[in-house]
Amino acid sequence: MSAVSRAAVVLVAFVLILTQCTDNPSRSVKKEEAISPNLQQTFKAKSFTDVIPYSFRVDWDKGSKGYSEPLKANYYEYPLIWNDDFNPDALAGRHPNRLTYKLVAIPDSRGGATFYLLEFLEQRNSQTPALSWSDLDDNYTGRIYLINQQDRREVAQAYKKGAPRGDISEISKRQFRAYREGRQKISGENCIVVATEHYTDWYYVHEDGSLEYFATDYMGTTYETVCESSGGSELGGEYSGDDTSAGGDPGSGEADETREEHEDALLCRSETGKKIPCRELEKDPCETSAEEIGDVAYQASSEIKDKLSLLISIYGGKFGITNKYVLQHFLAQTAYESEGLSNLNEDLGSYTVQNLLTTFGKYFSQTDKTKEDPDDYVGNAEKIANLVYANRNGNGNIASGDGYKYRGRGIGQLTGKNKYSGFTSFYKSAFNSNWDFVSDPDLIASNSDLAVLSAMWYFKVNVLDKITVDGSTSVEDVTRIINGGQTGIKDRKIYYQRAVENITDCNK
Amino acid sequence: MKKVKDFKWNRKYLLLFLLVMFMASSIALIQYQQESSIVGTWVSQSDQNSKWIFTKNGKAKWYYEEKLNYTYTYRLSTTSPQCGKQVQTGPHLEFLELTDVDNGFQQCYYINTLDDEHLSLSPFGRANILVFDRQ
Predict the structure, then answer these.
(1) CA distance linking residue A405 with residue B87, whole number of Å
(2) Which residues of chain A make contact with B124, given a CB cutoff of 8 A?
(3) Cβ pairs bridging A and B (under 8 Å)
(4) Nearest to A346 among B88, B124, B127 (CB)
(5) pTM, entire model
(6) How would you write the pLDDT of chain A (508 residues) with one tens digit per residue?
(7) In angstroms, rounded to a whole number, what is the distance separating the alpha carbons of residues A331 and A192?
(8) How many Å apart are CA A137 and CA A140, to the nearest integer?
């Protein structure tokens, strides 16, 4: 080999060595360079089981190195490999955002490291290739969170087209409880799953301290399983999954039902959050079972019985249903008013001419020309309602159509614009909702949750806020408020007696 | 001459006075007729056991299976407020206000029909209608 050749070889070798030494965060590094084998052994995936519910292992061979400005430290970033089908990748297409996790290790001086999970919440339309914090694609739009093992977000940043838009702060958390349709068989028991959807609101915090709303994250859903067994009802069960009715931003998780005993408590957990004992979920004081409700109102559909049971159990306290006496009267009255909890819409009747003259004599006459001719109205319930219920209970005039629009709905027959407005205000305040039943009154009948909740609200405002309901309260006293008269008092007493016999303890 | 003039003026005032008296008595008569028409015994069409009796002395009594359950004072009017709340008024709108003589509990109704044969009431804020036949 000539001197020139030797020099060329040395030069090439020098260049190669120089290239290897360059601190390029985007390139792959050999695992021994990224982190020591000992350190890999110290890493325990289980330490992140409270952060994400997915079972994973780390792909130590595909690490990359970078420098984190927020952390002021070098770090190593590794992809995760999912151990089973319950993982974020399996959710592709189900959410507007793409959820990706990586492991981040920040070596310490003792040869160990602090581990984090890096969460990419990328808008699906940004369509970047494999994600890397150290080499973020120019198209990346979304958020990046660095989460420690205590489930705390150490870094929370928003990006648009690869450029940081700023830090974001978790300002508030909200939750919305609902329940999953239908029943599910778990361990041979007849169970209903109550879901609580968790949301977190994120804001930019400007230098002057002002807040600018950024986004709302759907953080996952915890599920409480209410089971009916021969020995009565019990609470428990673990259910992690996605509820497609969830609003807000993306979440993750596929329905994956398991049941797990942990000491004496059954666990509920979110897809992205911690496990918590189901018994710690908020309970209201007056729980009742669908079976008990069915023993009061035989005609009630399974759907209404289930929903009444769940909503009373969860929200009873909000509506003053806090003892068995109140619950007994509430069930007796709503059962009568809704024909045994079976009718969610007001029966506007099929009036004959004579009916109209008898019932609405101030509006109809066959001789008085200042009144309406009943023949023009027979068979048209909407036209009748708009005439006779105009300018009542907050309704507008005949032309407004309010008389028909705000007809009786729900198991408590919510009636009149005033009541729809009152329930809207209550609902917005109590459930942080944007629903407006004045603009969309049909929801009260079409949504069985609302059909029940509107009745609970009416009972609170019109009965419980006016009289004390206890063991000495008579059916007559409640009936005269609900009915305005004594109509059906015998049947109401039958319902009440059934309620007394079957609703014996709200708190079981 | 002055006396004749005074007499004419007095006669004018007298006629005006009589006119006012006539109008007032007419209004009172109308109101009396309205209130008097509710006086009587009414039996619920949907539940024959329910009977309401309105008396001339302004009392209303609710019976169920001949047992007296509640005694009220009653008031018919076309004005606001009713039961302590502002309400819409206008053509066709007449109200019945009941006040429990024992505890002051109040209930208000829209009167849909009130004639020699029928009384039809809609409780405020409710969908149901109470229809009675005069007994």
Answers:
(1) 19
(2) 393, 484
(3) 107
(4) B127
(5) 0.55
(6) 555 556 555 555 544 444 444 433 333 344 445 455 666 777 888 888 777 777 889 988 888 888 887 788 888 899 999 887 667 776 555 455 678 899 999 888 777 788 999 988 887 666 677 788 878 888 888 888 898 888 777 888 888 888 887 777 655 555 544 443 334 444 445 555 566 655 666 666 655 555 566 666 655 556 666 665 433 322 222 323 333 222 222 122 222 222 232 222 233 333 334 444 434 444 456 778 888 888 888 888 887 888 888 888 777 888 888 888 999 999 999 888 877 777 666 666 678 999 999 999 999 999 999 999 999 999 899 999 999 999 999 999 999 999 999 998 888 889 999 999 999 998 888 776 778 999 999 989 888 888 889 999 999 999 999 999 988 999 999 999 999 999 889 999 999 999 999 888 765 4
(7) 21
(8) 5
Handedness of CA A487, A489, A494, A496 (dihedral sign): positive
Candidates A392, A400, A420, A461: best to mutate against B (most CBs of B within 10 A) is: A392
Contact A362 B130 (CB under 8 A): no
How close, in Å, is residue B40 to chain A by CA atoms?
17
Task: Measure in Å the smallest separation between the Cα of B14 and chain A Cα atoms.
Answer: 36
Rounded CA-CA distance A328/A334 in Å is 10
**Residue that the structure tokens 């915890």 belong to:** A222
A148 touches chain B (CB under 8 A): no
* Domain locations in chain B as residue ranges: 1-38, 40-134
A444 inside 8 A of chain B by CB = no
> Would you state the structure tokens that stand for residue A91, as one six-digit string?
């959710």
User: In Å, what is the CA distance from A158 to each residue of A72, A142, A144, A328?
Assistant: 18, 6, 7, 53
CB A132 within 8 A of CB A112: no
Cβ-nearest to A361 among B49, B115, B128:
B115
Residue A419, chain B, CB below 8 Å: the answer is: yes
